[in-house]
Amino acid sequence: MYAVVGCSECSNLWIIEGRSETTQCPRCGSRKKYEKRKKFVETEDGDHAREVRASMLANRQGHGEAFAELDSYSDLESQVDGGVVDDAEYLEASGLDVDELEAAGERDPRGSTSSGSRKEIVERALEELDRPTEAEVITYADDRGVPADYVERALEKLHRRGEVSESGGRYRRL
Hints:
Layout: E1 2-6, E2 13-17, E3 22-24, E4 31-33, E5 38-43, H1 46-60, H2 64-69, H3 73-82, H4 87-93, H5 98-107, H6 118-128, H7 134-142, H8 148-160, E6 164-167, E7 170-173
Antiparallel strand pairs: 1-2, 1-5, 3-4, 6-7
Pfam family, one: DUF5817
Domain DUF5817: 2-58, 120-173
Protein name: DUF5817 domain-containing protein
């Protein structure tokens, strides 16, 4: 069962599915017993409850006539099911070359590399190398396309968070 209910504190309208002992307004947080809440409609159909709530909200905003001209939720949903455009089709219709865009995304220096994200590469260096120095981690990461300044910042963050320890210029995972 679905019910369109209202809050006497803030005038919010929402839909409750099922029936619980108490309800809480999602906007202001006021709690009341279910029986005390103003129920505008109770129905077995969730679409009908959404229609009623949407109609009430449109009327509050002075758009009741415009809302009345719209199709029902179920009709709109069935129209959308067949009319969805995928990303490639949208980009091609916009005059863009999908293959070229994908290649540009793969070249993006901010994204992940073929051997993992920048952070993963730094963490892997700490795992695979035996008590490496900062320079060794930088060399390992540089071979995989990670800049030295990123490695330095990452090591500092990992150290501050207690994920690595540094002793005598050598790092190890904790």
